[in-house]
Amino acid sequence: MLTWVLISGYATAAPTLQQQASAALARIQGNVKIHGLHQPVRVQRDKWGVAHIYAKDEHDLFFAQGFVVSQDRLFQMEIWKRSGQGRLAELLGPSVVEQDLNARRLRFRGDFKAEYASYAPDTRQILEAFTAGINAYIDWLEGPESPGLPIEFKVAGFKPEHWKPEDCLNRLAAYAMMSNASSELAHAEAVRLLGVDKASAFYRLDPAVKLQPEPGSDFTGLSPDLLEHIVSSDRRIPFPATNLHESNNWTVSGTLTASGKPLLANDPHRVIANPSLRYIVHLVAPGWNVIGAGEPGLPGVAAGHNENIAWGFTIFGLDQQDLYLEEVNPADAHQYRSDKGWARMSEQQEIIRVRGAPDVASMIYFTAHGPVLWQSGNRALTLRWIGAEPGTAGYLGSLSLDRAHDWQEFEQAMPRWKVPSENIVYADREGNIGEHSTGLAPVRKGFDGLLPLPADGHYEWSGFVPNEALPHSFNPAAGFVATANHKMIPDGYPYAVGFEWGAANRYERIRQVLDQAKQQSHKLTVEDMEALQTDVVSLPALRLQKLLADAIKTQSSVDPDLQGAADLLLHWDGALRTESSAAALYELWTAALRGDVPRLVVPEAARGLFKNLDWEEILEMLTTPQDALFGPDAQAKRDGLLRSALLDARRKLIELQGEDPQHWSWGGLHRVTLRHALDGTPALAELFDRGPFARPGDGDTVQATSYSGPSFDQIAGASYREIFDLKDWDNAKAINVPGQSGQPGSKHYDDLLPLWRQGKYFPLKFSKAAIDEVTTDTMTLEPARTARP
Predict the structure, then answer these.
(1) What is the reported pTM?
(2) Is 313 helix (H, G, I), strand (E, B) or coil?
């Protein structure tokens, strides 16, 4: 657990912390004179904290975006920047030195001319203006009109530093979107412990293949633990890393809607923390009129709409990483075997400045494949990944998408969106809908990339899959397109772009609801989209009900406790509501099954690796029990396992919530606390954190509220949601959590939290007239005419 070093007095000054936070709030009204603008910029914040920025040219628009987002999120942005730079040890001390070194290993080291050319043609100018705006706010904080640094900097004991355009080209955040390197090491350890056949049986690989090591592979000593210090910059720092990147989106044709125009909905899921990962903004200038959400440290809008089109995304699980096992010269640990004999690793000395300790000087090494992540004896593990290629900074492809007018221009923007790989749904005002699964995907010929590869020259990438060859559709016959991280490639797809996808449960539920509306001739509305985004029906729960019914029938004698628990589940609609007693029992039952099945089917040697066996894989094992896994009479053993796990769940629930099922509730177990990085003392937690709050759903419901045992506390889900009515942009809905501002004491720090907790939204206005009606704070940024200080 990482902790912040607190400056003197703040750990004990609980009575005055809130006052100091309020005294340091950003100024969001009146006229503010700053250097760097061409002409005045009007910033209207609405009653929900969304900034609508009106500028007269592109430079001023992005300069103002940098200034405005810094007013709300400067501390969050500064941590994101320093994490990507590999400079967290300056703030947090020795515990993150290795994390900093890994961030520097992953830094883009290629051709910056090609880098900028990969995005929209004006990307460099946009980044220059955006970062100049951030710097202008940092400078303004030092001026006579400033209330002083935000409370977060005072507590943490450091000051923000100026930004450069390259700081927005951070590769560390992109790494979190690609979990394949960790998967390769898990696969390698499983093969080493169990052999190919048994190891392959525990992974849901689609297309179905075996984990087949290439000749010459030696997996001794490899495990996912080797990558534990590669930590994404978008993660709440003190939390353990998580790869829970679930999201939903869909777009519905006007033939199925009440308005006669398309509806589009998106709720990207990431870590739930405080402040939100997303920031909503509206950008208006000649050539620009786009609204939606992005990450605070990046210009533009990642998901949203302009005057003509709307879009939203979910992760498309491309395999964008490969690990290589390099042969190291026994006589020289810094030489590796290449096709021309022993080659010298390139090297770079890094000086890590460490808070409260001496600087650390360390050398990092690279082969032709990429950075050396681990080295032992005559082997080194190196990473080749998409992040080393030009144009792979996360979300900057949106700078082209933000200005697309129609499907053709949307398609032209897709090759520029390389990272994260996404399923992007589309709708336009003309009534068209579509989807394109995009990202930079390596071409692998003769190998699949599921295990670390010998670095002998036979397993190299052969370019990249043409973007137009990735899955996409336009005006599909079904009348809608939906994605939820499930497999998007068709059977027989000619490229080995990925084998590990999200479970299809959320997608199947979305499709089920939309299909039902079609069958009943129900014309869909924005309100229907809200209900679907917050739907908590669990398809796995309904599957397990059927298995439980069979297991109860086959019991040799009636156990009243078992029968009572079974009746509660069998007469339940499968909805994981906060007040549901059946939902609480179901989740404890599945928790027991997650522990029992691996103990039964995984050989003892590999139980440490498979203690968190994939839940969808467990469901498949239970649905079609195989003698190879359960032993002779597999179905009877399966039924016995279901019964015993249910009794265990009942006993545990009684321990937690008492004997009376009427007092059981899922929300009593499943809660969320929106935690801030600076909550290291009770006084600071009271200032910064919000919660705990009861939550519905789980990771399998459309309203995904993922948790990772043993706690049932939500750690990931939708902090941002958007719903767009293509007939009327002012009929859009959105939510962010807990609020737009990261400054405690601001009225927009947690004002959206009550809506989010209830599954509700606020109107996301777009027309100037509608925005004027809901504006609460207006600020004009004016060019300073005096000389710079």
Answers:
(1) 0.95
(2) strand
